Amino acid sequence: MKVLVAGGAGYIGSHCVRQLLAAGHEPVVLDNFVYGHRAAVPAGVRVHEASLADPAALDRVFAAEKIGVVMHFAAYCYVGESVAEPLKYYLNNAAATYTLLDAMRRNEVKKFVFSSTCATFGVPAKLPLTEDMPQAPINPYGQTKLDVENALRALARAGEFSFAAFRYFNAAGAAEDGSIGEDHEPETHLIPLAIGAALGHRPPLQIFGTDYPTPDGTCLRDYVHIDDLSRAHIAVFDRLAQPGAALFYNLGTGAPTSVREIIAAVEKISGLSVPVKFGPRRAGDPPALFADSTKAQTELGWKPKFQTIGSIVETAWRWHSAHPQGYADR
Ligand SMILES: NC(=O)c1ccc[n+]([C@@H]2O[C@H](COP(=O)([O-])OP(=O)(O)OC[C@H]3O[C@@H](n4cnc5c(N)ncnc54)[C@H](O)[C@@H]3O)[C@@H](O)[C@H]2O)c1
C-alpha cells in the first residue's frame, strides 16, 4: 500500500518509514523540515517538502501519488513551549491537521492514522491507563491532540473516514542497526539527555524531583521503542478497511521505569557515569504514567519486541555514541 507519512523526516516518522519498507509498503514522505532531517529518510523514498497548512501543496501531493493511508506524525511536541505559545500549537497541531483532513476528503483518501499522546489524559486518577479513562489535558500540547481525536470521532461518525489514534507513552530508542535515531533540537527527552551527559557533550542531567511517592522518589514513565510503535501503525491497516472505524489505542510496554532506573541503564550499557544535578519538582509532571496496552495486544496482535528498558537504551546508545551530534555526524 502507498502510505503518505506526514512528518516522515522526524524521529518517529522516519523509523516508521523504514518499518513500512520492511513490511513491503510504499512510503512517501511529506515534511516541511522545520524539525526533520533529510538524512533520516532512506534513499529512494520520495519526499514532498511542504507544510500541512498549505492546501494547494497537499492537493498536488494527493494528485501525484495514489495514497491509500495517511499516517500523521507532523506536529510540534514541546509541552513547555505549548504553554508559552499556545497559538503556535493550535495552528500547527490542530488547524493544520484539519487542513490535511480536508485535503484527504477532497482527494477521496479515507484512511488515517494519527499520533496522539498520553498527554491527553493529564494527571490520571488511576493507573495503568486504559483507553476509556477520562481525558483532561493540562497543557495546550495535550489539548490540541485531544481536539484532533474529537474531530476524528465526528468525521468517522459522519462516515467520512476510518481512523486509528495511537496514544504513545514515552517514545524511545533508535533503529537496531544504529543507522537512524533521535535528534531533536532542543532535546527534552530523558534518554538522549542522559547519554549526552555521560558522553560529556551535554550538561549534567537535571533531575526534577526526588520526593515523589514512587519507590525511588523519581517520576515513573512508560518507555516504548519506536520500532514497536511503528509496527502497531502497520498492524492496524486491516481494521481501517471497515468504513467509519474509530480506533483508539494506548501504546506502552506497561512497565513503569523511574528516572534513576534510566540513569542506571545508561551507566550499565555505556560503562560511563551520568553526571546529575538534583532540582525541585517541575510543575505539571505527574508522579507516574504508564499504559495498559491490552487493547492493542488483543485487537492488533501487537506485542512490544523491546520489553526491557535495557534493550531500548541499548539501541539509543548505539545511535548516540556513533553520532554524538546526531545527523550532523552522518
Ligand atoms: N516523541 C515522543 O515521545 C512522543 C510521545 C507522544 C506523541 N508523540 C507524537 O508523535 C509525533 C512525532 O513525534 P516526533 O518525536 O517524531 O517529533 P519530530 O519533531 O521529530 O517530528 C515531527 C516532524 O513533523 C514535521 N512537521 C512539523 N510541523 C509540520 C507541518 N506543519 N508540515 C509538515 N511537516 C511538519 C517536522 O519537520 C518533523 O520532521 C508527534 O505528533 C508527537 O506529538 C511523540
Structural summary, described in words:
The chain has helices at 11-22, 55-64, 79-84, 86-106, 140-157, 190-199, 226-235, 237-240, 259-270, 294-300, 309-322; strands at 2-6, 26-31, 47-49, 69-72, 111-117, 162-168, 170-172, 205-208, 220-225, 246-251, 256-258, 276-279. The mean pLDDT is 97. It has 330 residues and is of the alpha/beta class. It has two domains: 2-172 and 224-251, Rossmann fold, CATH 3.40.50; 190-222 and 254-329, UDP-galactose 4-epimerase, domain 1 (Alpha-Beta Complex), CATH 3.90.25. The radius of gyration is 19 Å and the shape is globular. It contains eleven helices and twelve strands. α1 links the parallel β1 (2-6) and β2 (26-31). It has a seven-stranded parallel sheet with strand order 3-2-1-4-5-6-10, sandwiched between helices. Strands 7-9-11 form a three-stranded mixed sheet. A two-stranded parallel ribbon has the order 8-12. Nicotinamide-adenine-dinucleotide binds next to α1, α4, β5 and β7.
